[in-house]
Please model this.
Amino acid sequence: MSGRPVLVINSGSSSVKYRLIVPGSGEVLADGTIEQIGESGGEVSHQVGDETHTGDHQAADIGAALQLITEQFAEHGPDLDHADLLAVGHRVVHGGPDFSDPTMITDDVLAAIRDLSGLAPLHNPSALAGIEAARERFADVPHVAVFDTAFFADLPDVARTYAIPRGLAERHRIRRYGFHGTSHQYVAEVGRGLQPGAEPDQPLRQLTFHLGNGCSAAAISGGRPMETSMGLTPLQGLVMGTRSGDVDPGLPGYLAREAGLTPDAVDTLLNKESGLKGLAGANDFREVLRLRAAGEDGARLAFDVYVHRIRHYLGAYLAILGGLDQVIFTGGVGENSADLREAAVAGLSGLGLVLDQELNRADSDQARVISAADSPVAVLVVPTDEELAIARQTADLVGPPTSR
Ligand code: AMP
Model:
């Protein structure tokens, strides 16, 4: 059964990413992206083996994008009608209080996900549209929802609770949910296999930093989540590409009174106009690095604030875990920027973190240790693979556990 592929679909607000993958071996049969859905000049890219096929498209919505995906497979392969598809796995950002595991999608489940849209207005509606279109197109195979919040479903009460009136919190399902769970869980699992000198099943205290367009940190003990930086929504915590991360909770009220902003305008400001973009004018980390190297003040400040926030969480989570065995960097920034990793742990030898500068700067896309051999805390880079994790969780739900 591990030979049958899973189609993983990740529907965002203006793009759909997809991957046809064999969950057991991790073999990628095809990989693609449809960008700028609903805009003119959209781009589609479909990769099979070493060949990448790109083109323009006019997909007006996610339904049209799904049709386009079908056409890409028909034109460039593999032929989906003869691929013996095991299932379709969908990434869903918010699972709310009800979904703590991968879930077979039924009409009732779809209605429950729709009911959560108030908690994730920027994310869940596009996932729903993707699921609806995919269920129509692939009507004969099971569809599974894998939730970004699931790994953090059993965060300890002290970590999940905001200090606001309890009745109100219960009525409106207000708690800290955490996001990027699939990624944190995946890199922590890979990291456990790389811990220098550890027995295979030795419980570890791990701190994982997922640093991409969205950024979050998680404290993990013995494979269980103890804390994470995102909360009710994916806005809390670290500085991100366009999201502010932590601000004073008094800020939205202040902006409403002083600047006349509506709740929606505040949401847009903090989610889409802040973070690196707000400070440096660029949300792409590579561009921030380029502007910083060119001596731009805004980019220098953006980099420093970004790093400062990471160190803030590093210290906090070290205290929560009562010590550390591993720090893991992942995501586009965490995997690729040696400068960022160096700045994040600079001067922390007193806490047991000592980088090996050469290993940190080595050119590699493999999971690897980048700390000095005698560093008490291991520092790792682990490339995340959310699609593989979603494919495996999907396959595990649909059939017997994948052999790997
Ligand atoms: P992700 O959301 O995981 O795809 O990460 C996207 C972020 O990773 C963007 O801000 C990119 O600028 C950043 N990124 C990708 N490659 C590099 C690189 N070589 N150096 C620094 N940042 C990078």
The mean pLDDT is 94. Residues 297-321 form the longest helix (25 residues). The pocket of adenosine monophosphate is lined by residues 212-213, 241, 284-286, 289, 331-333, 336-337 (CB under 6 Å). The chain has two domains: 6-147, 200-386.
